[in-house]
């Protein structure tokens, strides 16, 4: 690369840049080559940043590179990914996911051309399978498939979060494997597969698992602060984090989203999510059967939605950009850590100071 930047200024002349793009030995994806040329045409100072070239060749994009593409005077060829023909089943599915998740045509084509089957989106699939297996085990053991929380043996599970077992830290996230009944499991599993898997395909296992687990942990911690006598079961905190993040991303990028019937689908999603929250509130305050203690709280749903709108929206907006380079990301991390520390001290001291009468653990 010394021949391209002999004076080591950190910039490459447009002539050298164009020559490299047209005669390079690397087998770049078509979208990368078009973006290289678009970046050249967008530059007004006669040079291109060397680091941007390295990031592109390494399948990374900085925010400055994206701005250069967005402000470029040259229009990329084949503007609509839907014009691609002769695709196999998997590639058609990838194109469908791109239009479902990404709001920018450049991002869609970038994702489409660089997508590989490995690694597969295993996180959401594994979480869903484990939840189904745990539910099946307790269903067979209790011979009960709805309103399982009314069975004492169900609430004795070491996975359920119960305020009387707050010292067992794993319960703050293991509760996501337990469900009230078949209807709650079906709702969560369906959303995890329909929304979580496409999100994981586009944004990767690390970001989506972080978002999901943040919703789960925030759910149990919020319940321990706001509904101190209630247990928690179900993965609704993580599910609502995913759903609210995706819906917020669609709203923020409404004009760019090309998924069909997006308004109707959003209305249906909001109705279903609101119905699930209403059902959880009804079970909490007006249980249909007599119970020996409080029923599971609904606050995990709401806190999961808050996590999705705040943390999730930033994760989904920063497609293929490093989160640690963004100030807003560190503000969110600081806020979450502050909330975590507050919740820890609350769980240690507040129950005794406020004299909360915790129902005896099963």
TrEMBL record:
InterPro entries linked: EF-hand-dom_pair, Peptidase_S54_rhomboid_dom, Peptidase_S54_rhomboid_met, Rhomboid-like_sf, Rhomboid_IM_Serine_Proteases
Entry's transmembrane regions: 122-141, 172-193, 205-225, 237-255, 267-285, 297-316, 328-349
The cross-references to Pfam families, in alphabetical order and at most eight, read: Rhomboid (PF01694)
Chemical reaction(s) catalysed: Cleaves type-1 transmembrane domains using a catalytic dyad composed of serine and histidine that are contributed by different transmembrane domains
Q: Which GO terms describe its molecular function?
A: serine-type endopeptidase activity
Q: Name one GO cellular component term.
A: membrane
List the gene name. Answer: rhbdl1
Regarding the membrane, this protein is recorded as: Multi-pass membrane protein
Positions annotated as active site in the UniProt record: 236, 301
Keyword Membrane listed? yes
What name does UniProt use for this protein? Rhomboid-related protein 1
Q: Which family does it belong to?
A: Belongs to the peptidase S54 family.
